[in-house]
Structure formats: structure tokens, C-alpha cells
Design a protein that fits this description.
The complex is a heterodimer of chains A (390) and B (133). With 390 residues, chain A is of the alpha/beta class. Chain A is built from 15 helices and 11 strands. In chain A, 39% of the residues lie in helices and 18% in strands. Classes of the chains: A alpha/beta (390), B mainly beta (133).
């Protein structure tokens, strides 16, 4: 690797509903924590990226990259917003990574932020629906839970996946989230409680859905040379970065229950990192709905297509299983401030690889992965991280 | 749901009459219409194509939490329909109970109101589907 890139600082806010905090408060709070963690000053930062899905609809504010740079006291440096619906954070991370790989910068700060609870739930639903095809899906009444319900129904028909399998994802992620002090929902739930929760779009029920959240997350990335100069012994290396796209509308896909963008993005990331799915010690995947985690572990190659439900049932994806998935609690329990999600996933990977994940720590974690999806799968970003530079 | 009048007017051929497009080079049919065939690209020859409105249910769900404007339909059936000519499209299934809908069941297009934008706003019409009994 000509110019390796590592993570030298992380900062995250608690995720939840924060009436007393606004957009700029959240990202500044996460940013200051990340800068402190990295042990650098504002003058050291060469460039800034911000992943944010739709601040225009949530807080009536666009042009947020300059705003974030302004309130972070970094006015003057190039500041760029990246948008790809719920994958905005993952794509911002990739842009920051590419910036350093290109040799242009030595230190890049990349954040993700969303302030979703200033508007009503119905306005938030409309804003999020912008990730689907407005003219040919949303207009005809397809909501996001409905789109994932259609995927779930096909998964059940084609592979025999059961509603209980999906419920098991929610139960596991809440169990992990209960150990995460930054999670929105720090409590456990039962399969029975999920199964009896209100129908949203069957087979998807209320407790199969990730929540609406406020929150921000920030990473400080640095080049290999800079990491050596700063003597950052706990740097976590980005070993591979993959990104892929698919049709915007779910109905235009060859299969409703195989996420091609995740297959492609992960294969690119694996190949760049020189690893296989077997080498991954833990993963943070995009469980916006429980069926999404089942489809994610299949697309990432952790099990065969159609076996995601069974793999979940076997306990392999539990915190103490063979392949822990969503140790942070995932989007389901940790919360899903959309633009922040991709960055928050990278933070969990960093904490695991530093051995700082506290009660969620995966024993001897060496290689981790994050999987961040936009919409129903039209965008996917996958990153592979290592404790050591391979 | 707050798209403008001009946008809806532009889409009237598709929304009212299922007029999409087809690539004469490879025979693939598109709904909604596409001006570029993703397979043939510059070698493709695109022409207008009217779908029959016949199809079958590929997947469906019941929406209990509708977006603003569609509360009047709650709960409604949202589905992906496989048109007889090939393409899959998203649409509502109406005039039946959810228990009557089966994956693989035959459906036919009907012309219906989709959404009314407030008491004085425009009413937007388009396709929905009914079970063929």
C-alpha cells in the first residue's frame, strides 16, 4: 500500500432524542472529543468531510459542511458534505480515506450528523422516503418499512426464513446495546415482545425497526507518515474500502433479497485488504430493519445466501459467538441518526480493535468490518479495519 | 408526496395508461420508460411501449403507518407486481382484503385516485391493481 491510512481519533455523542441540542452542538461535541482523542489541534487538520442525509428537510439547513467547519473553529479549510441517504457517513469516510490515499492531505477529519427529532415523525418519514424512488415507489405508497417488508416476504418464500429469525436479530442487538453507554435504547427485549409489537408493514413490526435519532460521530484520519511522526501506537488501519451502487428502486433489482451492492462493495474491500470473510473477527452491519442484518451477513459472505436467519438462530452472531455482529447494538438499539451511522460504525470498529469496547469487547479482535447501506440497497460502503497494518 | 403539478403532468402517460418504453435492439421492456437501455447503451433503439395492465403479485405487504396524504387508505396493500411483459413495478392492490392476496395471484391494472393534496389541492390519479377472480 503506497499510502496507508489510519484512524487516530474517535468522538461520538450519545444517540437519542435531544431537544436541548441542535445540529451544530452535536457535531461540535463529537468533533472536540475526536480531536482530543487524536491529540491534535485544529491547525493540524487539512480537510473536512461531513456525511449528512437531509438537514434541509430535518432542520431547514443546507450548506452544512461550511457550517460545521465554522463551529469547529476550522474556517478556511476545504469542507465538503457527502450525501447518499443512510450511507452518507460511510461514503464520507471513503472520501476522507481517498483524500489521504491520494497524497493530498495528512490529516482529515470526517464526521456524520443528523438532527431528526426537531420535526414530527410524519415529516421525518417523508424526509427519509427521499432515499427511495419518489416517482415510482413513494408516490404509490411504498414506505421504507414496506420496502423492507417486501424483501422479507421474498426471503421467507425463497429461503424459509421465519419472523422469529428477524426477532432474534432485534433481541441480540438490544442485548449488545444495553452494554453501550451511548446507545439510544439501553435495555433488553424478548422474542415474544418483538413478535407481539404493533404491525408496521407485516412481516415488519415496530420492534423490527431502528428508531429516529439525533446524534453525531467524528473520526480523525491520518496518513502512515503522520501516524509515525505523531507516534500513534493505537492507530487502527483502514485495510480496505469498497463502494457500489444498484438500481434506486427495489423493483428494478434482479433479486429482492440479495443485496448486490453489498456483495460488490465487500468483495472490493476484501480484495484490497487481502482478507476473506472468514478472517473478519466482528462486523457492524446496517440493520435499519432486522431483515437487513440477515441479508447483510449473507451478502458479506459470512454464510450462504438464504442462511442468514439460521446463522442468527445458531448464536454465531452473538457477542460471544464465532462472528459477533453489531456489538454496538446496531442501528436497532444504538439508534440511527442517518448521516452519523456510517461513522459510528467505524468508531465501534476502532474501539474493538483498540481493546476499548469495555463490556462489549470481542476477545482478541484483529480485523473488523463495517457495512453501511443507503435506502433499500442502492448504495453500499464496506470498510475493513485492522489492528496491524498488513 | 408534495411534488408539483408539472411533474405529475409530465408523468401522465405512464401513470394513467402504463406507457413505458422498449429497446428495439434487445427487446427489453421498461416501466417506467427509460431513454437509455442499460444493456445496449448507444446501440439501443428506444421506442414507446404500452403495457397490457395484466400481471401477477410478486410480493406484498400491508402498510399500517402511511405517509402524509395516504392516511385515507390506511391500512392499504403495497405490492411489487410483475407485469405480463416482464418489468416489476410498485403499486397498491385494491378492492380486496389482505387475506385474499397471494404471491403469484393474477392482477389487472385499474385507474384510481392516488393522493389528494389537501381540500383545495390537485388530485393525482394513477394505476393501482385489482385481483383477477
Amino acid at each position: 500500500m503506497s499510502k496507508a491510512v489510519g484512524i487516530i481519533g474517535v468522538g461520538i455523542t450519545k444517540f437519542g432524542e435531544f431537544w436541548e441540542k441542535n445540529y451544530r452542538d452535536l457535531i461540535t461535541e463529537a468533533g472536540l472529543k475526536a480531536m482530543k482523542d487524536a491529540g491534535i489541534e485544529g491547525k493540524d487538520v487539512d480537510e473536512l468531510y461531513v456525511g449528512s442525509m437531509t438537514p434541509g428537510m430535518f432542520i431547514n439547513q443546507e450548506h452544512v459542511a461550511a457550517l460545521v467547519a465554522d463551529y469547529a473553529g476550522l474556517t478556511g479549510i476545504p469542507a465538503t458534505r457527502v450525501e447518499a441517504a443512510c450511507a452518507s457517513g460511510g461514503l464520507a469516510l471513503r472520501q476522507a480515506y481517498l483524500n489521504i490515499r491520494s497524497g493530498l492531505s495528512d490529516i482529515v477529519v470526517v464526521g456524520g450528523v443528523e438532527k431528526m427529532t426537531d420535526v414530527s415523525v410524519s415529516t421525518a418519514t417523508v424526509a427519509l422516503a427521499g432515499a427511495a424512488d419518489e416517482e415510482w415507489e413513494v408516490f404509490h405508497g411504498a414506505t421504507f418499512p414496506a420496502l423492507y417488508a417486501l424483501m422479507a416476504q421474498r426471503h421467507m418464500i425463497e429461503y424459509g426464513t421465519k419472523e422469529e429469525h428477524m426477532a432474534m436479530v432485534a433481541v441480540k442487538n438490544h442485548k449488545n446495546g444495553a452494554l453501550n453507554p451511548n446507545a439510544q435504547y439501553q435495555f433488553e427485549i424478548t422474542i415474544d415482545k418483538v413478535m407481539k409489537s404493533a404491525p408496521i408493514a407485516p412481516p415488519i413490526k415496530l420492534l423490527d425497526c431502528s428508531p429516529i435519532s439525533d446524534g453525531a460521530a467524528v473520526l480523525v484520519l491520518a496518513s502512515q507518515e503522520k501516524i509515525k511522526e505523531l507516534r500513534k501506537d493505537n492507530a487502527v488501519w483502514i485495510l480496505g474500502s469498497g463502494q457500489a451502487s444498484d438500481t434506486l428502486a427495489l423493483h428494478d433489482r434482479k433479486s429482492l433479497c440479495k443485496t448486490e451492492s453489498a456483495v460488490k462493495a465487500s468483495r472490493t474491500a476484501y480484495s484490497m485488504a487481502g482478507v476473506t470473510p472468514e478472517d473478519i473477527d466482528f462486523a457492524e452491519v446496517h440493520d435499519c430493519f432486522t431483515i437487513a442484518e440477515i441479508m447483510a451477513i449473507e451478502a458479506l459472505g459470512f454464510c450462504n445466501l438464504g442462511e442468514g436467519g439460521k446463522m442468527t438462530e445458531s448464536g454465531e452472531t452473538e457477542l460471544d459467538g464465532r462472528k459477533p455482529v453489531n456489538t454496538s447494538g446496531g442501528l436497532k438499539s444504538k439508534g440511527h441518526p442517518v448521516g452519523a451511522t456510517g461513522i459510528a460504525q467505524a468508531i465501534e470498529a476502532t474501539l474493538q480493535l483498540r481493546g476499548q469496547a469495555d463490556r462489549r469487547q470481542v476477545a482478541d479482535a484483529k480485523i473488523g468490518l463495517t457495512h453501511n447501506v443507503g435506502g433499500s440497497g442502492a448504495t453500499c460502503a464496506v470498510h475493513v479495519y485492522g489492528r496491524e497494518l498488513k | 408526496m408534495s411534488e408539483g403539478i408539472a411533474l405529475h403532468w409530465r408523468l401522465i402517460p405512464e401513470r394513467y395508461n402504463l406507457i413505458g418504453s422498449a429497446c428495439k435492439t434487445c427487446g427489453t421492456k421498461f416501466f417506467p420508460s427509460r431513454d437509455l437501455c442499460p444493456d445496449c447503451r448507444r446501440k439501443g433503439r428506444i421506442e414507446s411501449y404500452t403495457f397490457s395492465g395484466e400481471g401477477e403479485v410478486f410480493a406484498f405487504t400491508v402498510v399500517h403507518a402511511p405517509p402524509p396524504g395516504l392516511e385515507y387508505m390506511k391500512p392499504y396493500i403495497a405490492a411489487i407486481i410483475r407485469l405480463a411483459e416482464g418489468p416489476l413495478i410498485t403499486a397498491q392492490i385494491v378492492d380486496c382484503k389482505p387475506e385474499e392476496v397471494k404471491v403469484g395471484g393474477k392482477v389487472r391494472m385499474v385507474f384510481r385516485k392516488i393522493v389528494a393534496e389537501g381540500p383545495e389541492g390537485i388530485i393525482k390519479y394513477g394505476y393501482k391493481f385489482r385481483l383477477v377472480k
